[in-house]
Amino acid sequence: MKNDSIIPALVGLTVAWGGTALLVSPADRLLGRPDQVSTKVLEQLVLWVLCAIIVAIVIFWDKEPLASLGFRPFRWSSPAWGLGLAAVTIYVVMPSLTWGLRAAGIPGFEAGLAKILVLPAWFRMLAVVTAGIVEDTLFVGYAFTRLTRITGSPWVAGVVAGAVFSILHLPNWGVGPVLTYFVAIGFAMGFFAWRRDLLANIVAHTIVDGMGLVVLPALAGVR
Question: Residue ranges of the chain with pLDDT lower than 70?
Answer without folding.
Answer: 1-4
